[in-house]
Every structure is written in C-alpha cells, then in structure tokens.
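Lab notebook, bench 4. Still working through the backlog of constructs that have no structural model yet. Next entry is a single chain of 152 residues. Request: give me the structure tokens for it.
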Amino acid sequence: LATAIASAATVGGAITFARLGRSPDGMLPAVLAVCGVGFGVMFLAGNAPLLVAGAVINCVGTGMLLPALLTGAMSRLAFEDRGRGTGLWTAAFFAGEFVCPLVLLAVESAVGSLAGAVGVLGLAAALVAAGLLAARRRTLAAQPRALPKPLA
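Model written out:
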C-alpha cells in the first residue's frame, strides 16, 4: 500500500508539471529541492507513516523531474532527432534505475545504514539544486537587458 501511495504521488507530480506550463530548466532547482526534502524526511523518519510521507514528497518531486528532464533534453534536439533522442533518454533512465540500488547499497555500506544512504541522496539532490540555481542566476544576470524606452 505504501508503494502504491508513493506511485500515485509520482502521477500527481507529473500532472502538476503539465499544469504549471513553465520552462523545465527554470523548474529543475525547485523540483530537485522537493526530491531532496523527501529524501530528508525519509532519512529522519522514526516510524512508517513518516517514511511514507517522505516517499510521497520525493515522488511528487520525481513525477515533476522526469518530464522536466525529458522536455529539456528534447527541446535541444531537431524535430527529426527527437524519436531517437527519446529512445536514448529512456535507455539512460532505465540504466539509472538499474544502477541506483547498487549505488545505494555501496553508500549504505559506507555510512552504516540504509537511512543514512537515503540521507546522502537527499544531500546530493540539495547540492545539485543549489548548483543549478546558482548557474541559472549567473546565466540570467549575464544576459543583456533591453534599455527602457525614453519618455516622449
């Protein structure tokens, strides 16, 4: 039941992404922050309901993250290359799903607990979110701005 609830939150996140109608690149820092908060709640959870709440928060974030990443990647491809690009992106996604538990097990052995490994994932998500936000701010600050029109 807990997995079903978290999976439903992923669907909710994807629907939220579609309804927001914003540029996916601008959303990435916030979406990764939501994922990081979910990981953090799971890391700190002392009981099953709190663990499920963390999973729901994380899955809302991942439900928004997946279409944001895919849309961002596809928008950089020519129309005729988007089918191939989607296939490659999907292959990379599922390769990541294969590797993720192995990485989690390695981190668990390094930090001593599965909860600690999930906390490391939360920290990583937060750091990537902060890095993307800083890079986006620098990019926006470097863009030339139009001068205001003189008053007549």
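Notes after review: The chain has five helices and no strands. Residues 8 and 59 are 8 Å apart (CA to CA). Flag for follow-up if needed.
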